Amino acid sequence: xxxxxxxxxxxxxxxxxxxxxxxxxxVFIHGVLNDHSVWILQSRYLAHHxxxxxxxxxxxxxxxxxxxxxxxxxxxxxxxxxxxxxxxxQAALVGHSWGSLIALHASATAPQRISHLALVGSAYPMxxxxxxxxxxxxxxxxAIERIxxxxxxxxxxxxxxxxPGTWLRGCARALMRRVLASNPQTxxxxxxxxxCDRYDQGLQAxxxxxxxxxxxxxxxxxxxxxxxxxSLIDAAPTGSRVLRxxxxxxxxxxxxxxVLQGLRGYLPPP
Length: 270
Hints:
Layout: E1 2-5, E2 8-13, E3 25-29, H1 40-47, E4 52-56, H2 72-85, E5 91-96, H3 98-109, E6 114-120, H4 130-138, H5 140-151, H6 168-181, H7 188-198, H8 202-207, E7 213-218, H9 230-235, E8 241-245, H10 251-254, H11 256-266
Parallel strand pairs: 3-4, 3-5, 5-6, 6-7, 7-8
Antiparallel strand pairs: 1-2, 2-4
């Protein structure tokens, strides 16, 4: 569905189910050069098991219009604007990578609006190597190849690793190329990476939260290694949980069932 926001139309995948006021709502936020589809298993399952689901394309990405956010703060404002537009008083936020910083900042900006917060493949600070930032600016297609090499563990080493016809790296590469091409006016790869690299409010944001946070981390993640999330974990509210999975940065595709089960165990039954 498309939701009209002041910044432009925002696309949200609802899992094929209409929104119902009596159901709890979960908002899924993707990372750099991704879109709503990275959450397909988790979002569709929850949508058919008692939750409202909004798996969004960030502004300027995929099916969403408007200008692509140049900062975590801008992107977080669009998430809160989505809740306002749909008159949703409270929602759970689930974010991956850049999306985890967006979810964190939105939660800190309006903690009364956020019931639960799950950070997947997160780190703070989320620094990007200068060489990768430069390559993202000058040679984005080559940078995509490099990112996919670092984003997947040996679980996704070749075609058919999860069954006939599957190739996680190839699917991820095709998705990133498609999202990059969806906005010819903006280099979404460089803009997203720069936003991650500049964000410096992570610890302050966590200190504004009172509800426990769920961290889902990949043990073989080379983009946001588990140790890079330790500062967030140390600052998280009492009762926060850490789930470490045998996967790389692309947790939702390398360990889809485990990510879903982690979310099911964290979110209250609808």
